[in-house]
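Thread: "does anyone have the structure for this chain?"

Original post by V.I.:
We have the sequence but no experimental structure in hand. Need at least a predicted one for the grant figures.
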Amino acid sequence: MRWAFLILAGLLLSGQREAILVPEVSQSEVQIRQGFTGTELLLFGAILDPGGRRAGAAYDIVVVLKGPTQPIRMREKKRIAGIWMNAETSDFRSAPSYFAVASSQPIRDIVDERTAAIYELGTQFIQLSPSGEINPQQQARFSAGLVDQRRRQGLYKQEEGGVRISEQVLYQARISLPSNVPIGQYTAETFAITDGRVIASAVADVEVRKVGFERFVEYASQRWSLFYGVTAVLLSIFMGWLAGRLFAMT
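Reply from O.Q.:
Generated one for you, tokens below.
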């Protein structure tokens, strides 16, 4: 099975001059249903030379799985007159809703900081695109706060040593998606690196979407927002009344 995959990849890449990655994902679509507790994606593939043989040089692999971007406002709380209150704020135009990095070695041992920043090879190198006027120190503080918050939510992660390479031909990485994973189109970008230089890259797409009752609720909240809001309020009132009746009977 493995060598059949390599032969097919070699035939497809026979016209290329440089080494190229052939990526695959275990599932191109993740369906979120009721009771969804998370899942795990297997990202695998091969790196070949133009003749379909193994690449001549040793290399490292870094896989970056990124969710759809979204604008976000971060607020910083400060203790004022003994009360914690919202103080300074910072807006980001395009913060990834999900961001995971897996690498065959620690990033610092593979590339320098400049290359890592160009390709976003690590949570500290995410390009968050802040908006408005903000000084560098404040920007760094809010960026670190955003990354830390989403790391604690399981939405940002970095696993050094999370990519396994076999015979300098095949690679595989397992990246977990938590139960609170945002929906949307995800991109899994794989980089082959040797001597601190990216020699090949490739992208695979993964769609995360809700199905079943969860999809109906989401659609109703967006398409019939007034009806959805009224129904939610009435349902809450009914459940409160029912709970009160049940406790009164005991």
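V.I.: this helps a lot. The first strand starts at residue 20 and ends at 25.
O.Q.: and The CA atoms of residues 115 and 230 lie 52 Å apart.
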